[in-house]
Amino acid sequence: MLTTLLIPFRVLINFLWALTTTAAIGASIVFIGIFKLLLPIAPVQRLLSTLANSLFRLWAYAMSLLFQLTQKMTWHIEGDLALHKNGWYMIMGNHRSWVDVFVLMHLARRNMPMPRFFLKRQLLWIPIVGWGCWVLDMPFMRRYSKDMIAKKPHLKGRDIVTTQRSCKKFKHIPTTVVNFCEGTRFTPQKHKNKNSPYRYLLPPKAGGTAFSLQIMGDQFEGILDITIAYPGKDDRPVVWHLLSGQLRNVYVHIRTLPITDDLIGDYANDPEFKTHFQKWLNQRWHEKDAIIEDLHEKMDLAHQRR
């Protein structure tokens, strides 16, 4: 019934649902964070983190409903999701849109440890959302330009230290560490500026993935190589498409890759390992690109037959 409403009404319903559930659950997580600050005792901290994580899963269920409230949307999920909530995994994914975050929430809500994202430090100051992410121990990263590092060499490697500190926290609670390896959302302009060798992807950055494996590789049960695409007229939907009920298809391809010994090494100080890891990741990106291209060919063929 709600799918037949005019777009303004669909936007209002979805926006109010997202706002109220995020505010209520986020405020509850922040409330738990107050006790985490006041009670710096390891067993208590772990208990409070577990409670906050349960609320985070509840939020994932709430966000999953956004795909169903006002739109006739079809999920196309291929691959293996034979996971369990009490494990540790690392997601290695492409980044098409902000909608990707809601897609991962939908995937994680039932049978995956709740994901942790590497966030820009500016997001920390967003009321409720930023504070809630801090309580959930999500790492906030500062990006330094080459010019800034040239002026202040001591800033070099600061992100690496943040990654190491955050991943150590993840060892105490089942977690899926998310690496959007491209480092930013795809746009045609970014694709052109970076002279990408891929048709549908930006070149991947290997550092964050390599450091996550270096720190937690012995604890991860596998790498979830996730490819996300939105076939249709606009394959880079913005949140507006989701709120207005105009998102029709979401395609997700999942491969579980083993973590072999050759994927764990000192990325910062071992040039040979660095070269090897970059080649390995680039090959995965060529495979992702082929998956997305095959999808578009199938969609074009389906439209021609209509």
From TrEMBL:
At the top level, the lineage of the source is Bacteria
Q: Which InterPro entries match?
A: Plipid/glycerol_acylTrfase (IPR002123)
Q: Tell me any Pfam family this protein matches.
A: Acyltransferase
**Record's keyword annotation contains Transmembrane:** yes
| Gene Ontology, cellular component aspect | plasma membrane
Q: Which UniProt keywords apply?
A: Acyltransferase, Membrane, Transferase, Transmembrane, Transmembrane helix
**Single GO MF annotation:** acyltransferase activity
Q: Which residues cross the membrane?
A: 12-35
**Annotated Phospholipid/glycerol acyltransferase domain residues:** 89-231
Q: What is this protein called?
A: 1-acyl-sn-glycerol-3-phosphate acyltransferase
- Source organism of this protein record: Idiomarina aquatica
